[in-house]
Design a protein that fits this description.
The chain has 416 residues and is an alpha/beta fold. Helix content is 28%, strand content 24%. The strands form eight sheets. The chain has a six-stranded mixed beta sheet with strand order 5-2-1-9-22-21, with no helix packed on it. A five-stranded parallel beta sheet has the order 11-18-12-13-14. A three-stranded antiparallel beta sheet has the order 6-7-8, with no helix packed on it. It binds flavin-adenine dinucleotide.
Length: 416
């Protein structure tokens, strides 16, 4: 008799947590992913600003999930037939008894057809490597151009979206330029300007007011311009347009909304306005106890009726919960509700500062940054990656860059 077969779509933080927890258990697992590695996305920004190497945040499935009961397939799922219990990769179909959908989100830029080509996203390893090369080329150019300071020569960098991702990327960008100008004193730092744009009234809209206020003060004190309540009206090759303002730039980074992928429409399940899948308190879609949805793609409300914020802690907790159900083969009526309470939050700012909050307690400064750093080291899979990140972070702190700042001559820039 064939064993129960579990198919997992996406081996990010949530999907790989399940697969790891079910290693060598009495269940056959097929994990399908577009990449042959799991990527630790929270540190993509550090790759983009050349603090760590791309390879220290990616772990190949072959080493992470080595087990007799796990098979990994490199491929992109294009549709799901929930009645026949089949998953499709182009024209190949794979049967399942249980299905876990953990394919995460994608930046919502496709709906902005004419802006899209001018936007840079930070979601994949390729995105981070491309940004890194763009920034390194720019800094090399700055070193070799004898510009006298004039308004026409200012290069603007614009980040759209001021959630945790946007704020942290803005901070990393600031640090990269700050280090560069401190090592190249002949160049005027006013040649570079950073803008953070938010359409809501405040930055970090999902965080406590005290956290948002401190972050606002911290970033503006570094000369970063923050524009809140600011609606973008157009983006083209000249720059970015608002109601009463225009910023000339070809460096626009998208850190605003993310959405679920279109292949999920084939599931014919309830979706939110951001195309995430609405799940019940056992993380199933309605009427299908064999289909679990976890991680960023799951739309789950907490006891107060608010959507749970999407982050690594939640993704891991959901992965562990589903692994427990599958390990014990619990029927729907035997399953405990998925419960999640995490009031703690940490946001990395510039110059090794961070803000850590837990309920009403707030800690700011270097110790908060150490907590942020330790949490990342704890979460990143693989001992080699942990060591590599510790090594490169120490080098970066000491302002020694062993190999993170190499420009790969085969990566062509858009303007070249
Ligand atoms: C730049 C950035 C910074 C972040 N910073 C933080 C932070 O500081 N703290 C924090 O807690 N969280 C942070 N996050 C969010 C965090 O990374 C996510 O919450 C977490 O990765 C969600 O995990 P997941 O398993 O749902 O999806 P993901 O980790 O996104 O994994 C999805 C996987 O599915 C695969 N996939 C997608 N579509 C398909 C398909 N059709 N077929 C096959 N495979 C597919 C992808 O290749 C990927 O491997 C950040 C995210 C980004 C992008």
């Amino acid at each position: 008799m064939s064993k129960t077969q579990l198919v997992i779509i996406g081996g990010g933080i949530s999907g790989s947590t399940i697969a790891k927890a079910l290693k060598n258990k009495d269940i056959d697992i097929i994990l399908i992913d577009k990449a042959n590695y799991t990527l630790f996305q929270p540190l993509l920004k550090k790759v983009a600003v050349s603090t760590i190497t791309p390879y220290s945040i990616a772990t190949p499935y072959d080493s992470l999930l080595k087990s007799n009961n796990i098979k990994t397939i490199l491929g992109e799922v294009t549709s799901i037939d929930k009645e026949k219990k089949e998953v499709f990769i182009k024209d190949k179909k794979i049967r399942y008894d249980y299905l876990v959908i953990s394919s995460g989100l994608v930046p919502n830029i496709d709906s902005y057809t004419s802006w899209k080509e001018h936007l840079t996203t930070l979601k994949t390893l390729n995105d981070a490597i491309n940004i890194k090369h763009k920034l390194l080329h720019f800094l090399e150019k700055l070193k070799n151009t004898q510009l006298t300071f004039s308004k026409n020569y200012i290069t603007n960098f614009v980040i759209i979206g001021s959630g945790t991702k946007g704020v942290e990327f803005t901070s990393c960008l600031y640090d990269m330029f700050d280090n560069f100008f401190s090592q190249n004193k002949q160049i005027n730092p006013s040649l570079v300007k950073i803008y953070l744009i938010e359409k809501k009234q405040t930055i970090l809209p999902n965080h406590p007011t005290a956290v948002a206020t401190y972050t606002y003060q911290h970033l503006t004190s570094k000369g970063i311009t923050i524009l809140t309540s600011t609606e973008i009206t157009n983006i083209n090759s000249e720059g970015i347009f608002f109601d009463k303002k225009f910023i000339k730039t070809n460096n626009i980074f998208w850190s605003a909304e993310n959405v679920g992928s279109s292949y999920l429409d084939s599931l014919d399940a309830n979706q939110s306005s951001s195309h995430t899948l609405i799940v019940d308190s056992e993380l199933n879609i309605s009427g299908h106890p064999e289909i679990f949805v976890i991680g960023d793609i799951a739309n789950l409300l907490n006891e107060q009726g608010k959507i749970l914020p999407k982050n690594c802690n939640l993704a891991k907790a959901q992965g562990k919960y589903v692994a427990y159900i599958l390990k014990n083969r619990l029927f729907k009526n035997e399953r405990p509700y998925f419960k999640y309470t995490n009031n703690c939050n940490v946001i990395a700012l510039t110059k090794s500062y961070a803000i850590f909050s837990i309920k009403n307690f707030i800690l700011k400064g270097k110790i908060a940054w150490m907590i942020w750093w330790c949490l990342n080291i704890y979460h990143i899979p693989g001992i080699k990656n942990k060591i590599s990140i510790i090594f490169h972070s120490i080098c970066s702190f000491l302002k020694i860059y062993p190999n993170t700042k190499l420009i790969n001559l085969h990566i062509k820039q858009k303007n070249e």
